[in-house]
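Q: I have 425 residues here and want to know how they pack in 3D. Can you give me a structure?
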Amino acid sequence: MEFSTLLATSFLLAPAFYLIARSSSGKSGRSKSKSKKNGKNPKNDLISKALNGKNDTLDSSADGNGTSSKKVNGIKKRLGKLVASKIQVLSYYRPTACENFVGREDEIHKIVSSKQGGAVIYSDLPFDGIGKTSLAMKAAEVLSHNFPDGHIYLDLNGNSSQAMTPEEIMGHVIRAFMPRTKIPTNAQALVSKYQALLSKKRSVIIFDDVKDAKQVANVLPPKNCFYIVTGRTNIALQGALRVKLMPLTPEESKQLLVSMSPEIGALAIEVSKLCGFVPICLVLAGGVLATSRDMTPMNFTNKIRTRFKNLENPEGPTAKNIEGLVKFNYGRLTGKTASTLHKLSIFKAPFDAKMVEFVCEDPKISNLQTLVKAGLVQLNPRTKRYSMHKIIQRWAKANINPAEKAVAQKRFTACFLTAMLDTND
């Protein structure tokens, strides 16, 4: 893999970006002292090259004032490990569901009171957006007090060509608790290390977007931990609690819409019905109303009644209906806000405001705030990190133009490179 691709497909952690912002603003005392000593800051030179599109920066030979080949190889090795990891470690803060999470009290009670060691959250509906991941995160939040040794979220990408293998899953979990440890290459040794590590922990592990039982059957943690699996089907895992997820109740749907757009008033029930009481549809509908200055709740209701008449069928909405709501919401964004949404598609894990401000060139994150209000980006209120639902991310990725993508990747590269050079000093 080329180095530029390596960087562009990786993700940033918040502490790393703090180093980036500090170095880029010239406030790092260490960087200043080097600059004064050598008359030049080699890190700033590398970042400048990255921003100018020279993404082979680390592949070039270093001069007397630059970065040594040994150091370069060490950085590239560490980057490779970071890029290979698709996990979000929640050990340093309790997991929290999205800001507008409502309802699901019965399902949460079943999960947190379960004595079965794990739960499978699934839905028979033929589309995403019913709230499986949000429920898993909410349940993990409630379970936090009983599992103090960390909470790990893994997106297994089970329904894509990049699905994690059991070996990758175990490696990521081991590295989450032991960042500097060597991951065994022998299969039996890997399983032994994985199980031995988790046998000493009380943790919650979320396996999100699982394809089938084969993907996770051999990586389930021991009984002193708790696992939550989400999938599009009822994944057959022996001894696990089954939680079938259905659309929200009419009252829960109304609560969600009103939380996003209080002015909807009595029309909330009708809009909820048009949306099939499906969370992703409700969030997108509420987002349109929350960001529209020229559309009354009645006008909006009439528009979606006309545009999405087939939402009122007994089976509920379809994937095509949901795509229509995304398109409707997206079509009302200004050019700069839409561009910010496109650029966010390069992030492969939750991101913070500082990242968006630099990578997406969004001063004061005004565009990001609009996207949150529109329901296209979700904010975790406890961690202050943002994410996009996979449906929205696919849409953004499909609509980003080559110029936007090139600029975002260059700035992403510059950010990551700065952080790695700082932490390798």
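Q: Anything worth noting?
A: The first helix runs from residue 3 to 8. Strands lie at 87-89, 118-122, 151-155, 204-210, 226-231, 241-244, 378-380, 385-387.
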